[in-house]
């Protein structure tokens, strides 16, 4: 579970996957997209430039690791990486595997369609798939 408390929106929309060197990994509960959110385990941050140099390096390693996991599992057309925070001020980084055939392509996923939550079985399967992929990728 995350070291720092999650913003209520992240806690509501995200499913805990794992902890990395500097971030907890959440799966956004929208089955339309393989969509991870990395939340740095540092309190009271809203933007990437607030990380010290050591933490920035760790967060970037986590972003690369999460990106490799999504590429390995889903072979996306494009991998979107963004730290916006306009609606949720807590620093978090979106990693979204995008496909030329997905519901929002080529536009952003935000607000394109209502989320379609994972059903209980699919949610458990996807979280386990991601957990195993993170372990495998870290060992590679």
Helix content: 25-40%
Rounded mean pLDDT is 95
List the helices and strands in order: HEEEHEEH
β-sheet strand percentage: 15-25%
CATH architecture identity: 2-Layer Sandwich
Quick one: CATH class? Alpha Beta
Low-confidence stretches: none
Number of helices: 3
Main sheet record: 5 strands, antiparallel
* Largest sheet, spatial ordering of strands: 1-2-3-5-4
CATH homology-level superfamily:
HIT-like
The tally of beta strands, per DSSP, is 5
CATH topology: HIT family, subunit A
Distance between the termini: 24 Å
CA-atom Rg in angstroms: 14 Å
Coarse structural class: alpha+beta
Number of domains: 1
Taken from the alpha-carbon principal axes, the silhouette is globular
Describe the structure.
This protein has 140 residues and is of the alpha+beta class. A five-stranded antiparallel beta sheet has the order 1-2-3-5-4. The longest helix is centred in the middle third of the chain and has 22 residues. Helix 2 crosses helix 3. The mean pLDDT is 95. Helix content is 34%, strand content 21%. A hairpin with a 3-residue loop joins strand 1 and strand 2. The chain has a single domain, classed as HIT family, subunit A.
List the helices and strands and how they pair.
Layout: H1 8-13, E1 14-19, E2 23-28, E3 35-40, H2 53-74, E4 78-82, E5 93-98, H3 120-139
Antiparallel strand pairs: 1-2, 2-3, 3-5, 4-5
């Amino acid at each position: 579970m995350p070291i720092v408390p999650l913003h209520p929106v992240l806690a509501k929309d995200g499913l805990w996957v794992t902890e990395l060197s500097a971030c907890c990994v959440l799966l956004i509960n929208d089955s339309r997209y393989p969509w991870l959110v990395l939340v740095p385990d540092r309190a009271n941050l809203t933007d990437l430039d607030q990380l010290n140099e050591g933490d920035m390096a760790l967060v970037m390693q986590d972003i690369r690791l999460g990106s490799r996991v999504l590429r390995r599992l889903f072979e996306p057309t494009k991998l979107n990486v963004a730290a916006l925070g306009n609606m949720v001020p807590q620093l978090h980084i979106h990693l979204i595997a995008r496909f030329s055939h997905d519901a929002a392509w080529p536009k952003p996923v935000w607000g394109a369609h209502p989320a379609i939550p994972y059903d209980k079985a699919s949610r458990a399967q996807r979280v386990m798939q991601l957990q195993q992929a993170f372990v495998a990728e870290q060992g590679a």
